[in-house]
From TrEMBL, chain A:
It comes from Bacillus aerolatus. Keywords: Aminotransferase, Oxidoreductase, Pyridoxal phosphate, Transferase. This is Probable glycine dehydrogenase (decarboxylating) subunit 2. It holds the Pfam family GDC-P. The modification N6-(pyridoxal phosphate)lysine is found at residue 271. Its cofactor is pyridoxal 5'-phosphate. GO terms for cellular component: cytosol; glycine cleavage complex.
From TrEMBL, chain B:
It catalyses: N(6)-[(R)-lipoyl]-L-lysyl-[glycine-cleavage complex H protein] + glycine + H(+) = N(6)-[(R)-S(8)-aminomethyldihydrolipoyl]-L-lysyl-[glycine-cleavage complex H protein] + CO2. Signal peptide: none annotated. GO terms for molecular function: glycine dehydrogenase (decarboxylating) activity. The glycine cleavage system catalyzes the degradation of glycine. The P protein binds the alpha-amino group of glycine through its pyridoxal phosphate cofactor; CO(2) is released and the remaining methylamine moiety is then transferred to the lipoamide cofactor of the H protein. Residues 6-444 form the Glycine cleavage system P-protein N-terminal domain. Pfam families: GDC-P (PF02347). Keywords: Oxidoreductase. The glycine cleavage system is composed of four proteins: P, T, L and H. In this organism, the P 'protein' is a heterodimer of two subunits. Its EC number is 1.4.4.2. The keyword Oxidoreductase applies. This is Probable glycine dehydrogenase (decarboxylating) subunit 1. Belongs to the GcvP family. N-terminal subunit subfamily. The keyword Membrane does not apply. It comes from Bacillus aerolatus.
Length: 494, 450
């Protein structure tokens, strides 16, 4: 394939256009008659000028330089890169969903409100919670929303508690959300089994503990067996339990955060519920709560009033609004469609398959890599590249080598408490053949590290571009196109 | 389990082989680490699975219970607009190499997404007149709240002034955000349809971290940013402008009028209304705040051969590195909608974006004049873009019911948020034809008499 390396601005030529708008059917206006001169744009925005076909070729060429789930296996741990069903994409684009305005009279959007209401109820059932808000745009915003509810709940009880406990294996958004919600983060070290250390936890839980944030199964893919005891410890001290349910792919129909004793949970619909990651977003991060926290849920809430669905903002103890309108509706439509496709047995089988696949792959790879926690895992597992590191090859190098085989690498260097970590999440939508083929490549790479490390150290060999200089990118940031920088590039070329 | 679900490929044989490799007889054994007392006994109580043909039918039925802008010309705006979206936009974002990819953490196989974001950042900088833009935020409202937090953190002051002419939802969302971070928010009152500059003078002080205004404001009026900048700068506060990117095709770039941070939502350019989301917040700053900006940023660099490439950069700001020291917790953003917006801006192009903006301003102007001819009072005293406020002799709700009967969606009722009873905020985009506008005016006229 011929390499394509142009920016859209570089193929732009004055006078070209990629769309056609009608001429005005009303009187023309001279801006200078309407606006003071200093509020009229003097220098035009340099947007591209290309024909429609040039546009299509440009973005098609870019897409060819991108790897998505549809291109191949994507075992990126903690991200649940499962198949994104096509019907979901079609449905979200129905005009009755995509071309409705958020402020239309309620009676003109009953279908949309019904969908939201049913989704709220189904997610409440799936998580074992009493009510759900669909407003948060993503997991991180869900976490923050949940913590703000914790704060409001405690305030109502006349308590100010300042600490949020977070295990060292937690996702970065957990401590960051605690900070932006105005809490202090206290990090709890995991024990040698990768689980919350109950004794350590007890040392930190006190009358100043607002909440414990926990992922279960945790980011090592292990189920916190002591969860009931953990919940008791936190509750007895008057704290609340927050469940990071970004990755709920192991528990559907098997258990619920509600049963485990959690008070608040967020889900990432862009993980467990198949909505696409979109190259970074948009997602949706609904939050479920137990009864005592219902008054604090964001407004407006979608409620049913007799036969009608309504938006109700009359909840005086609510933390208020956390996001514009009612959440990422288009994403919620996709998740609803998915839940309808699977039904209860289907969702349970999702988790059973996801867990089976993870354990199968784990057992296949364990002879070749250090397995810091060799026990039954849930939907994902971690390996350590420490053996290979001793031979001079780092996890990063192995990840790059995987690219040569058309695989997206696993998550690397996370969680932080595992040296040279590789975090692998195969998901339920991959076939056994894919898992076998991937295992073989991983084993081949492990062998290369021993016999021919150069080929790993110099990887990738087959991608459109080699390893990039990230240090330079951060030291001398070029964050936008300018003609001058483009000119510099011409010099490099010649 | 025998592959009865189309997303689950395991056959009975696959399953047996995997189980026997693991030395177990059932997947139940893989769940034994879940204490029995917290295991679910029966199935989840949710509706049964529906095969694809029936599901499509059901979803069509649900969708048809909503009145969409294709059947019902809409005159609602108030932050979300029915604009023309070129067909190419949906085709390009439907390339699954884009939409089924995660965040581009592996640059060698994500150059397409990375370059697309780099181009998006450039287009946002061009429109806003700012130096640096990030790769997107959840929406314009949360973007605004993050801008306020940035201002508080970087000025070490604890008060934020926000004009009442800023979108009510922005003013709502900033409340929990400021409560979390411990700063106060004061609203600056209106002088007719714009921010009251005298009040702003009175309220601003040495503890003011930022002044936040909207451009055009919630009523469609174009605020005089130059005047506000003077007051803001004299008090050492940052000037935050929430701007409609389409309007910026014609209006002076906020960057040229002294904005320190420009935020807003790209929805008017290429993103469907979708009942309010997903849209796409943008966030642009003066270069002195480059290392304080929230969210992901793409930068240009080179590979070992000197070939140009793109990477996520300045990551030391972000939650995955900084954890509890991070100033923002954003992780996932709205990347696919940023792409949609880039494709739309590319399709419209330098000329088309201006043309579209011009159509908006002309159609809104036409409609306002028609209404004035019929004796309606237009409340805007300042020039407006594609929205304006009209006073009606009856409650907006009643008039909107008449409009609905006539097959149209009426404007936004300013009664509940502002207490401006009988005042309707009307948006007129390029999608509205002269006939539709005339019909709307007729119904309004009839509703007064009827
Ligand atoms: C365990 C966990 N928690 C939270 C998040 C944050 O979710 P989001 O990116 O949707 O904000 C993620 C996703 O990256 C995650 O894996």
């Amino acid at each position: 394939m011929v390499e394509y390396n142009e920016l859209i601005f570089e193929i732009s030529r004055p006078g070209r256009i990629g769309s056609s708008l009608p001429e005005s059917d009303v009187d023309k206006i001279d801006l200078y008659d309407k606006l003071p001169k200093h509020l009229i744009r003097d220098v035009q925005a340099e947007l591209p000028e290309v024909s429609e076909l040039q546009l299509v070729r440009h973005y098609t060429a870019l897409s060819n330089k991108n790897h998505g789930i549809d291109n191949g296996f994507y075992p990126l741990g903690s991200c649940t890169m499962k198949y994104n069903p096509k019907i979901n994409e079609d449905v979200a684009r129905f005009e009755g969903f995509s071309r409705i305005h958020p402020y239309q009279p309620e009676e003109t959007v009953q279908g949309a409100l019904q969908l939201l209401h049913e989704l709220q109820e189904e997610l409440a059932e799936i998580t074992g919670m009493d009510a759900v808000t669909l407003q948060p745009s993503a997991g991180a915003q869900g976490e923050w929303t949940g913590l703000m509810m914790v704060k409001a709940y405690l305030e109502q009880k006349g308590e100010t508690r300042t600490k949020v406990l977070v295990p060292d294996s937690a996702h970065g958004t957990n401590p960051a959300s605690a900070t932006v919600a105005g809490f202090k983060t206290v990090t709890i070290p995991s024990n040698e089994n990768g689980l919350v250390d109950l004794e350590e936890l007890k040392k930190h839980v006190d009358h100043d503990t607002a909440a414990l944030m926990l992922t279960n199964p945790n980011t090592l893919g292990l189920f916190e067996k002591d969860i009931v005891e953990i919940a008791k410890v936190v509750h007895e001290a008057g704290g609340l339990l927050y469940y990071d349910g970004a990755n709920a792919n192991a528990i559907l129909g098997k258990t619920t955060p509600g049963k485990m004793g959690f008070d608040i949970v967020h889900l990432n619909l862009h993980k467990t519920f198949t909505t696409p990651h979109g190259g970074g977003g948009p997602g949706a991060g609904p939050v479920g709560v137990k009864k005592k926290l219902i008054p604090y849920l964001p407004v407006p809430r979608v409620e049913k009033d007799g036969e009608k669905y309504v938006l109700n903002s009359d909840h005086p103890r609510s933390i208020g609004r956390v996001k514009g309108y009612y959440g990422n509706f288009g994403i919620l439509v996709r998740a609803y469609t998915y839940i309808r496709t699977m039904g209860p047995e289907g969702l349970r089988q999702v988790s059973e398959s996801a867990v089976l696949h993870a354990n199968y792959l784990r057992k296949k790879l364990e002879p070749y890599f250090e397995a810091p926690y060799s026990q039954v895992c849930k939907h994902e597992f971690v390996l350590s590249g420490s053996k290979q590191k001793k031979l001079g090859v780092r996890t990063l190098d192995m990840a790059k080598r995987l690219l040569d085989f058309g695989y997206h690498p696993p998550t690397i260097y996370f969680p932080l408490n595992v040296e040279e970590c590789l975090m692998i999440e195969p998901t339920e939508t991959e076939s056994k053949e894919t898992l076998d083929a991937f295992a073989e490549v991983m084993i081949q790479i492990a062998k290369e590290v021993e016999n021919n490390p150069g080929v790993v150290l110099e990887a990738p060999h087959t991608t459109v571009i080699g390893r990039l200089d990230e240090v330079q990118a951060a030291r001398q940031p070029i964050l936008r196109y300018t003609k001058e920088k483009a000119a510099e590039r011409e010099v490099v070329k010649s | 389990m025998t592959a009865t679900y189309r997303y689950l490929p395991d056959t009975k044989q696959d399953q047996e082989e995997m189980l026997s490799f693991l030395g177990i007889s059932s997947t139940d054994e893989l769940f034994e680490d879940i204490p029995p007392e917290i295991r679910l006994k029966g199935e989840l109580n949710i509706p049964a699975a529906i095969p694809e043909p029936q599901l499509l039918k059901k979803m069509h039925e649900l969708a048809s219970q909503n009145k969409n802008a294709n059947q019902y010309p809409t005159f609602l705006g108030a932050g979300t607009y029915d604009h023309y979206i070129p067909s190419v936009v949906n085709h390009m974002i439907s390339r699954s190499e884009f939409y089924t990819a995660y965040t581009p953490y592996q640059p060698e196989i994500s150059q397409g997404e990375l370059q697309a974001i780099f181009e998006f950042q450039t287009m946002v900088c061009e429109l806003t007149g700012m130096d640096v833009a990030n790769s997107s935020m959840y929406d314009g409202f949360t973007s605004l709240a993050e801008a306020a937090s940035l201002a508080v953190a970087s000025t070490k002051r604890s008060k934020v002034l926000i004009s009442k002419a800023v979108h009510p939802e922005s003013r709502a969302i900033i409340n929990p955000v400021s409560a979390g971070q411990g700063y106060t928010v004061e609203e600056v009152d209106l002088a007719a349809d714009v921010t009251d500059l005298v009040k702003l003078q009175e309220q601003i002080d040495q503890d003011t971290a930022a002044v936040i205004v909207q451009y055009p404001n919630f009523f469609g009026s174009i605020e005089d940013l130059a005047e506000m900048k003077k007051t803001t700068e004299a008090n050492g506060a940052l000037f935050i402008v929430s701007a409609n990117p389409l309007a910026l095709a014609l209006l002076q770039a906020p960057g040229k009028l002294g904005a320190d941070i420009v935020i807003g939502d790209m929805q008017p350019l290429g993103i469907p209304m979708s009942f309010g989301g997903p849209h796409c917040g943008y966030f642009a700053v003066h270069k002195k705040f480059m290392r304080k900006i929230p969210g992901r940023i793409v930068g240009q660099t080179k590979d070992e051969q000197g070939k140009r490439g793109f990477v996520l950069t300045l990551q030391a700001r972000e939650q995955h590195i900084r954890r509890d020291k991070a100033t923002s917790n954003i992780c996932s953003n709205q990347a696919l909608n940023a792409l949609a917006s880039s494709v739309c801006m590319t399709a419209l192009g330098k000329q088309g974006v201006r043309h579209m903006a011009q159509l908006n301003i002309e159609k809104a102007d036409y409609m306002a004049k028609r209404l004035q001819e019929k004796g309606f009072m237009i409340m805007n005293q300042s020039p407006f873009f594609n929205e304006f406020v009209v006073e009606l002799p009856r409650p907006v709700k009643e008039v909107n019911a008449k409009l609905l009967e006539a097959g149209m969606i009426g404007g936004f009722d300013l009664g509940s948020d502002y207490g401006f009873d009988n005042q309707m905020l009307i948006a007129v985009t390029e999608q509205r034809t002269k006939e539709e506008i005339d019909q709307f005016v007729e119904v309004l006229e009839a509703s007064v008499n009827g």
